[in-house]
């Protein structure tokens, strides 16, 4: 079945001789392996980096075992840009792929790559775009100016208590107007991030106290006492729109995904594409129309900002079908595979590989196809297999894996850096992610069944009783797409 | 026999003194002479009386001859030796011999907060027509002692200067004149609470407007130590004293780039002593002192009673003069005093009696005269270039503008405030009912006094990012330091694990601040001109005042020329008008590229004019110190007098109800910190800067003690109360705006 194979010649006519290029993969784990695969497909040379803790990981082992010059360099940290650029110069790299995490959304890293005396192509958006869309406040302000719905609240830091209280009052009023039973708002430190300095307020009387506390915290912690206030949404689905843009102004979307199933730390665990499926769930709103509108909004913002790489527009859709733009992820995402998996490009066999497209476009190529050429087929589910204790607050598990058997089915694609032929010790320095499984079925119900089958056939064993999230994943598959 | 023994001992002292003065025994084979004297001392009983008599005659003749020869050609370095000789008179000698009785205050001998500073209530007596009149005075000065270690050679510690300040205040309360006696090679360089610089600044600030007549006498005036008790209405100097910006050794170490621990060559020392123009005649010529008291050719010693007699006369005469100048009716007495001065010998009697008490009006005149006196100092030390206008017109413009500001803020403003207050009161009473009544009044008021032109300050947006989607680059000034593709290692990397910083990031977006630990790397002064103030609001003034080489210091012209070429500026101070979020202010900035930010006559004059401009326009005054290395030693005492001069001007500004903010950056040391900068009630430091009195090397060399780590850091300055806060460079503008809105007197134009 060639529709389950990645289309080998999907990319049309490489104009530039990419054989002279060399890509430094500045990341670890499964994304490093996927970038390697993409490079190999494109016929581009690559170089990997690894740290001492990752010596046993496949992303270090595979390039070390390959012939054709030194292909992997040991570094002391994935987070030190100086070291990454030193390796790039040493290995004669012309481009750097940051993967996700680490430097992927760091505009300074991208800027340095572009402006240094030996420029290196940053495989990602222009650094200006990363800077502009990297800030949630800026994104929100820009979106508002384009008529894109955003979560009601402030779009600039608030410094005055009177102003803050007026806004809080208004937000409570709006929620009551909408008939929300338990209205609440969020007070955030504007300079904060990663969940620091956020507090929920359930009644107006408590607002002033919380506001002062957050203001003091922000002043102490970040040196800026600016505070953001927005409506607190509780009942929603988390949707994403996958975009692919070129430096020539071409914008193509690859549909939507639903990533509502997350751990307590807001880490995604099960993702499904497309974002809604009216065939299996009943929605109180016109689901296809909503998907269409958030896609159109995302494309509008991307065009306006001059977006020129792969990116994800994150949305929330409330129970009554109201979409709000959350933020833009200016990078490749873990779950890009499910969007690719359901996509078909006319004239090509199989499904596209978005990482490959990203690398290709970063080298300045044209898209080669337009939105009309893209169609969608079936449903795809991604399972993130992680060594963690889901019953105890998703606590990571550390130890040595002795058996790691994942079923090799036609309907499933598995990405993992865990070697199967020997025991593997999970490094304590990084997240204990073990594998990604991408399941595809003709329709949503079939995909769900296949996903459950995949999980039940998976065998993971480790020293001293390994804890993984397989049971959790099995249970939660039923909840996808449902409010 | 006993007599001869005494005479021989006296001879030995005289020879020893000659050795002190000439800096060694090589001159005039003094060693042999001393040996001869010792020999006779030992064999005095073996020789016949006639032989001893003959020998004594011979030796005396020889010593007298040598003394005359030695006094003939005294070099400045030898004058320094005279001053430092243990046989020279000290303050205790003066108290014993010039004053009739005295009571030491604040300690005795070793039992003292600082034995190097002596304060005493003393009585000085004069005879007028066979009647005795006693005057009470406060005597404050340095006591060098006779080599006692606890006296520290007259180097006052901060608490010693604090003691002096305390008794100045006592004198002010009691309304008696102060006689200062300066016998110090310099202040003791310690940063212990509150720090030498800070205490000296407090002293100068207080003396600037102390309401009693002050006369100072300088025997050894070394730099900042001398200024701490030196500001006065009349400055007298002994003819064999020295008054200098720095000790000749210090100057030689700087000029010769002598490494720490190495000995300074004698020729260089002599050369520097001559170049510094530190003798009494030099200082009189430069106008930094008012009068010279003649000493014997080789200097007065402990038992030179005729000198003490002269000094008593001179001190009384000087105090008389200061007092008389403040009197409205004085012609006759002034004439008498003048006539008296013409006599060659010191008279036994005074012609007139002058009462040293001052009325309030006279105190005002005293302060006015003091201000004029100091403002005139150093006038010859800079070059005033052409402004391109007719000088008379410039003066007229100045007069007109000061009149305008006086009218606008001095006369109209209080009325405006009163009217506004009444309107607010009335509307506050019962707004609904009375609005109808007050409406027309308010409309009329607003027609007469339109709404203030400055906008209500709003929070500075972060870099003005709103439209950055359409912008390829930030439109801000980026330091030229950023034009290098390389990395630097943060000095705190070991401690905090900071990653190496890419130079374009560091000097561009990060404003030279390590994002991990907050260490501030130095940035050039242009950055501040661009980032601190509203775009295009910086207007420089007094650009035409240039630094010069008033002492014709050898080789300094070339160095000055080099710095002028390198920086494109002609002094180390920039004075400009600027705006911060619409608030107009006057800025004076010392920058390090030009002669290491040292302050000379040109810089002092520019600062004084900036103070006056801020005073007439009622704007806040910001002194931003990019770097200062102290007073410019090549201008000698012309430089040192900038300390009291600038402090006086800035005190007048502060007391007019202004706001004076000082912000230190990089390195700020010595004179300026110990005077017109250190006296500000609002001093702040940029993080990672160093502030202090003397650098680590000077401290090690003078005190012989090692300097603790981070001794001069901003954090330690904050701890000892020198500065009031540490500012992050990235928040400089925001903090400055906050300061402008919350601090300062009520006389600022925008309040």
Briefly, what is this?
The complex is a heterodimer of chains A (483) and B (751). Chain A is of the alpha+beta class and 483 residues long.
Please give a structural write-up.
The complex is a heterodimer of chains A (483) and B (751). With 483 residues, chain A is an alpha+beta fold. Chain A has 3 domains: 2-125, Rossmann fold (3-Layer(aba) Sandwich), CATH 3.40.50; 152-231, ATP-grasp fold, A domain (Dna Ligase, domain 1, 2-Layer Sandwich), CATH 3.30.1490.20; 236-479, ATP-grasp fold, B domain (D-amino Acid Aminotransferase, Chain A, domain 1). In chain A, 31% of the residues lie in helices and 25% in strands. Chain A contains 13 helices and 23 strands. In chain A, the strands form 6 sheets. Chain A has an 8-stranded antiparallel sheet, sandwiched between helices. Chain A has a 5-stranded parallel sheet with strand order 3-2-1-4-5, with helices on both faces. The longest helix of chain A is centred in the middle third of the chain and has 19 residues, at 287-305. Mean pLDDT of chain A is 89; it is low at 8-15. Chain B is an alpha/beta fold. Chain B has 5 domains: 2-73; 83-375, 2-enoyl-CoA Hydratase, Chain A, domain 1; 391-448; 482-522, no CATH class; 525-742, Alpha-Beta Complex (2-enoyl-CoA Hydratase, Chain A, domain 1), CATH 3.90.226. Helices cover 44% and strands 15% of the residues of chain B. In chain B, the strands form 6 sheets. Chain B has a 7-stranded mixed sheet. In chain B, strand 16, helix 21 (601-617) and strand 17 (621-625) form a beta-alpha-beta unit. Chain B is globular. The interface between A and B is medium-sized, with 25 and 17 residues.
């Amino acid at each position: 079945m060639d529709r389950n194979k990645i289309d080998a010649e999907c990319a049309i006519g490489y104009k530039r001789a990419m054989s002279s290029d060399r890509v430094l993969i500045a990341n670890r784990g499964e994304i490093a392996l996927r970038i390697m695969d993409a490079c190999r497909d494109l016929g581009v040379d690559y170089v990997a980096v690894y740290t001492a803790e990752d010596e046993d990981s496949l992303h270090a082992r595979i390039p070390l075992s390959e012939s054709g010059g030194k292909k992997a360099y040991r570094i002391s940290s994935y987070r030190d840009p100086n070291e990454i650029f030193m390796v790039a110069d040493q290995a004669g790299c012309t481009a750097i792929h940051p993967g996700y995490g680490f430097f992927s959304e760091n505009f300074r890293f991208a800027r340095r790559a572009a402006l240094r005396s030996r420029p290196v192509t940053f495989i990602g958006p222009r650094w200006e775009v990363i800077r502009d869309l990297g800030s949630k406040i800026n994104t929100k302000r820009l979106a508002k100016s384009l008529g894109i719905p955003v979560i009601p609240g402030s779009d600039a830091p608030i410094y005055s208590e009177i102003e803050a209280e007026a806004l809080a009052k208004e937000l409570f009023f709006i929620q009551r107007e909408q008939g929300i039973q338990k209205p609440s708002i969020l007070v955030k430190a504007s300079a904060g991030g990663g969940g620091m300095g956020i507090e929920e307020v359930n009644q107006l009387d408590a607002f002033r106290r919380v506001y002062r506390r957050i203001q003091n915290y922000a002043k102490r912690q970040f040196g800026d006492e600016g505070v953001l206030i927005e409506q607190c949404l509780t009942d929603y689905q988390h949707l994403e729109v996958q975009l692919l843009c070129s430096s020539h102004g071409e914008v193509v979307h690859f549909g939507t995904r639903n990533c509502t199933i997350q751990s307590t730390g807001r880490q995604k665990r099960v993702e499904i594409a497309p974002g809604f499926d009216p065939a299996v769930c009943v929605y109180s709103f016109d689901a296809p129309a909503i998907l269409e509108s958030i896609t159109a909004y995302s494309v509008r913002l991307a065009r306006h900002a001059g977006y020129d790489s792969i990116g994800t527009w994150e949305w929330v859709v409330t129970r009554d079908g109201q979409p709000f733009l959350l933020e833009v992820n200016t990078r490749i995402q873990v779950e890009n595979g499910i969007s690719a998996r359901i996509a078909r490009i006319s004239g090509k066999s199989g499904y596209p590989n978005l990482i490959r497209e990203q690398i290709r476009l970063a080298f300045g190529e044209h898209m080669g196809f337009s939105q009309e050429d893209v169609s969608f087929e079936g449903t795809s589910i991604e399972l993130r297999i992680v060594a963690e204790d889901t019953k105890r607050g998703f606590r990571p598990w550390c130890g040595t894996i002795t058996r790691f058997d994942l079923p090799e089915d036609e309907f499933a694609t598995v990405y993992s850096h865990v070697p199967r032929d020997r025991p593997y010790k999970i490094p304590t320095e990084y997240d204990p992610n073990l594998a990604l499984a991408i399941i595809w079925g003709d329709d949503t119900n079939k995909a769900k069944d296949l996903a459950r089958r995949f999980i039940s056939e998976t065998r993971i064993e480790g020293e001293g009783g390994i804890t993984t999230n397989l049971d959790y994943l099995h249970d939660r598959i039923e909840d996808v797409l449902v409010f | 026999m006993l007599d001869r023994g005494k005479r021989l001992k006296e001879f030995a002292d005289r020879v020893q003194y000659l050795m002190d003065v000439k800096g060694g025994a090589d001159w005039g084979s003094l060693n042999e002479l001393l040996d001869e004297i010792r020999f006779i001392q030992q064999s005095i009983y073996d020789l016949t009386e006639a032989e001893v008599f003959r020998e004594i005659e011979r030796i005396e003749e020889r010593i007298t001859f040598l003394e005359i020869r030695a006094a003939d050609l005294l070099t400045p370095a030898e004058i320094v030796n005279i001053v430092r000789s243990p046989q020279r008179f000290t303050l205790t000698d003066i108290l014993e011999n010039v004053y009739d009785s005295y009571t030491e205050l604040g300690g005795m001998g070793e039992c003292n907060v600082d034995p190097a500073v002596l304060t005493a209530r003393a009585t000085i007596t004069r005879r007028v027509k066979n009647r005795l009149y006693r005057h009470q005075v406060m005597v404050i000065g340095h006591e060098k002692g006779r080599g006692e270690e606890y006296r520290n050679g007259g180097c006052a510690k901060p608490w010693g200067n604090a003691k002096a300040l305390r008794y100045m205040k006592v004198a002010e309360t009691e309304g008696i004149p102060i006689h200062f006696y300066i016998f110090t090679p310099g202040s003791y360089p310690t940063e212990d609470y509150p720090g030498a610089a800070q205490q000296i600044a407090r002293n100068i600030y207080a003396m600037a407007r102390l309401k009693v007549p002050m006369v100072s006498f300088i025997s050894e005036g070394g730099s900042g130590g001398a200024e701490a008790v030196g500001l006065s209405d009349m400055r007298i100097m002994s003819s064999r004293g020295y008054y200098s910006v720095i000790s000749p050794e210090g100057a030689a170490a700087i000029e010769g780039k002598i490494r720490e621990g190495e000995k300074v060559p004698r020729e260089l020392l002599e050369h520097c002593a001559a170049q510094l123009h530190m003798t009494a005649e030099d200082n009189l010529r430069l106008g930094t002192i008012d009068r010279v008291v003649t000493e014997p050719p080789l200097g007065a010693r402990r038992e030179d009673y005729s000198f003490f007699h002269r000094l008593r006369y001179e001190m009384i005469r000087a105090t008389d003069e200061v007092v008389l100048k403040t009197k409205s009716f004085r012609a006759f007495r002034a004439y008498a005093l003048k006539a008296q001065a013409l006599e060659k010998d010191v008279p036994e009697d005074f012609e007139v009696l002058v009462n040293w008490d001052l009325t309030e009006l006279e105190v005002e005149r005293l302060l006015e005269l003091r201000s004029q006196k100091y403002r005139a100092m150093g006038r010859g030390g800079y070059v005033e270039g052409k402004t391109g206008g007719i000088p008379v017109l410039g003066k007229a413009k100045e007069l007109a503008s000061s009149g305008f500001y006086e009218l606008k803020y001095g006369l109209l403003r209080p009325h405006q405030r009163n009217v506004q207050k009444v309107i607010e009161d009335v509307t506050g009473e019962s707004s609904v009912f009375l609005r109808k009544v007050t409406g027309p009044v308010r409309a009329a008021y607003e027609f007469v006094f339109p709404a203030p032109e400055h906008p209500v300050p709003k929070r500075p947006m972060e870099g003005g990012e709103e439209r950055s989607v359409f912008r390829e680059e930030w439109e801000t000034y980026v330091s030229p330091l950023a034009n290098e593709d390389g990395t630097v290692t943060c000095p705190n990397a070991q401690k905090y694990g900071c990653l190496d910083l890419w130079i374009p990031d560091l000097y561009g977006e990060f404003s030279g601040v390590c994002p991990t630990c907050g260490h501030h790397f130095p940035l050039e002064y242009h950055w501040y001109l661009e980032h601190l103030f509203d775009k295009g609001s910086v207007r420089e003034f007094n650009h035409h005042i240039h630094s010069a080489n008033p002492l014709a210091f050898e080789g300094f012209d070339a160095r000055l020329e080099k710095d002028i070429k390198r920086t494109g500026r002609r002094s180390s101070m920039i004075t400009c008008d600027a705006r911060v979020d619409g608030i107009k202010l006057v800025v004076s900035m010392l920058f390090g590229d030009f002669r290491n930010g040292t302050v000379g006559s040109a810089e002092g004059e520019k600062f004084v004019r900036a103070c006056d401009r801020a005073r007439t326009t009622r704007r806040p005054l910001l002194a931003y110190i990019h770097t200062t290395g102290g007073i410019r030693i090549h201008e000698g005492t012309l430089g040192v007098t900038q300390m009291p001069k600038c402090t006086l001007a800035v005190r007048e500004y502060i007391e007019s109800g202004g706001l004076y903010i000082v912000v230190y950056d990089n390195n700020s040391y010595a004179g300026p910190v110990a005077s017109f900068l250190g006296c500000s009630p609002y001093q702040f430091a940029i993080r990672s800067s160093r502030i202090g009195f003397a650098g680590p090397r000077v401290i090690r060399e003078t005190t012989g003690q090692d300097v603790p780590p981070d001794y001069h850091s901003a954090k330690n300055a904050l701890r000892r109360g020198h500065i009031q806060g540490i500012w992050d460079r990235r928040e400089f503008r925001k903090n400055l705006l906050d300061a402008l809105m919350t601090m300062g007197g009520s006389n600022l134009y925008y309040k």
